[in-house]
Amino acid sequence: MSLIFVFLLNNTISLVNYFRQTTLVETKAPTLTDAITIAVQQIRRNHEEVPEMLITPQVFEVTNLLDFYYGVTWQVSHKQLFEWKLESATFEDKVKTYFNPARFLQLLKDYVLFLTKNDELSKVILRQHQIRAVEKCVERAHDQNKRRGLIWHTQGSGKTLTMISIAAKLLRETQGMERPTVLMVVDRNELETQLFQNLTAYGLTAKIAESKTALGKLLKSDYRGLIVSMIHKFDKRPANLNQRENITVLIDEAHRSTGGDFGSYLMAALPNATFIGFTGTPIDKLSQGEGTFKVFGLDDDTGYLDKYAIRESVADNTTLELHYALASSKLRVKKALLEQEFLNLADMEGVSDVAELNKTLDKAVNLKNAMKADDRMATIAKQIAKHFQENVEPMGFKAFVVAVDREACQLYKAQLDRHLPADYSQVIISPNAKDNQALKAHHLKPERERELRNAFTQKDKLPKIFIVTEKLLTCFDAPILYCLYLDKPMRDHVLLQTIARVNRPYQDQAGLIKPYGFILDFVGIFDNLKKALAFDQEIIDTVIKNISVLKQAFKVQMTTVATSYLPFAYRRDNQDTEQAIEHFKEKAEREAFFKFYQGLQRLYTILSPDAFLQKFLKDYDALSRLYCLIRQAYHPRIYVDAELTTKTKRLLQQHTDLLDSDLPNQLYQLNAEQLTAFSNSKVSDAIKIITLRKALIKVVDEGLSTKPFLISISKRAEALAQQYENRQLTTQEVLKQFEGLAWEYVQAEAEREKLGLDDKSFAIYKRLQDFKQASETTNTEARDQILEKANDYQSAIKQQAQEVKQLFEYFSDYRYAVEEAKTLRIRLYKQLYSQYAESLVNVTDDLMQLMSP
Predict the structure, then answer these.
(1) pLDDT for residue 493
(2) pTM of the model
(3) Do residues 789 and 796 lie in contact, with contact meaning Cβ atoms separated by under 8 Å?
(4) Using CA atoms, how far apart are residues 501 and 319, in angstroms rounded to an integer?
């Protein structure tokens, strides 16, 4: 693809050099199991093994010819892999729209971002819903007739990145040569996070309005560029501070930022500006200020400019479903007291800010005293510690304890330290000069708090539990956070924002995947969700579900679907094992079982330990062993142990009365003696095919880096496996060919030892021999000359192979140095010409590919 960018900035035209770059696309067959996962693994290997290939490409694509995914280079992970989706579109339509030249150039220019996260530079690419919102907002900013817009994107869907991209696009693509002003209105939590590092990493320079006076001067002076301010800086600012039209105001958390007088002052100060609000939870017909739709949705019939709903987000795996459980009624706040001092208060309806919530709770004296009773907190802390050690820690995740106030944070820390190591937990609160000594002991310097935040986001670092009450309940993104222990009354927007801390997806290279987010409620808020969340029923039903739903789902799966698999799961001997493997020889049957088990394991991992599971444990154990057996049999390159959760592994270790998942009559070494005995064994043909394939994969994986001649065997074995999978060949035909490949390897090893060649020389020897045998042209004069120097034809090829290998060793940098590669090619032509004149280019190309790692 040919690229040329033109930037017009400060009356200067900047051009990048014209160049041509091949896009990196990894394509797998639609019939290949785990095609996308395998493709991503290949992309990751490319980064590790041939990094020079990834110098210029900014994005990569993977496809199984049905679905189409894209991601950014140098940040290869499932989390950063996004599906390119079009409604009612064919695969061809997806490819054509993605690679549309104008759209693709815009993707590279505007939607690949470099950001700072946890003090490390990272590279991201926007999802489709973010790109869509950016383009709509830029269009709205240039619309002379429409001045309002609402971006309704659910919590955790990347609104901050969307805002940054809008600001960058508006400032870079000025219309009419007049540079605009972009004002980002954020809250204090955003200012304390990495927002400004992200702006800088993106290449944006921002003026920070440190005070009301500074903000007024910036607007009065007609500053052009990016300004960042908090909403309260507009308090009592005069009207008409700047009447220019090309001012765009991007307001984060719009449902609360503009709900009071601050919003009125803001809009009066900039009467002709375009105002775009961002929210995951719009306020509509609630008592707290004007509805978000009324303020920002006037110019759109739907009430919003763009919407990305919770249901879409969960389907796209942008966010996860949440599940909750109620703590024992003995620990929960008395229902009458909770309703009297909190839930039934009219001024709590639609509360959108933690500060507002805290003011109300400060008045609820009886409620707070009951919640902070010594016996209650001690019992809850003990239960939290037990639940964390049994449920959360074995999964590899972390947790929040949300306490009713700052004092409760300190009290919970003291209690938790009685049951867990002290460095497991950390209090994160805002310091106050009036704090007593007990609270001051938990004051942190900004640098130390930043270190702890960064450590918390990493799986293998301490702390594992943050104890909070206000800080980190918004604008803290830690995908490793799985569990939230809730002991603070909340409702509406504050509740939704708080529980959204645990809805971020997590998946690492070790195979750890976060299944859901989980909340354990010690207050009783979730006992009446309709009252606690004053939103549409769709939002409530989508965002969070009682964990009893999961128990029922597990029971249904174990008592219905599982019954068809259990006869194969309980195996007594090798014959039963063979029958189980034979039963799953059809791909559709295997895929159905894999999908069933993986869903079952997710449920088990969340629910365990629980007395409810006791009657299902032995069956679940047997199904787990069956899964390992079938997975290893038909997908030998997949490390099945990585697909089992820690809780499942522990269960398998406890039960030793069931057969393990090893294949019967395995080939531990691929040599003539074992291969002959195996071929003559009474094992079924299907088992023989699986065993031979595994044996070939083992020798290839162990020897490919030093034995290039294995490349050919590996490719043919994989192609044969695919033909068998797709039923293009009969079992007998496939078995015959697999036996042929196995004997080819055994004979090649024997031949190499007989010739006395090292692995690389032998690989060259075999390739030259193949070309010689395929050639119909004989050069008798050249052959006679070689035979004069060597005893026979075989020795002649052996000698030439050794000489070719010496050339590759001498020009060892040919893969990176263009001139050296040219010289090597010329020397190979000279070396090979006498014997391979008519196929000289093909032979040389083949050898250079063979010797490349």
Answers:
(1) 79
(2) 0.75
(3) yes
(4) 10
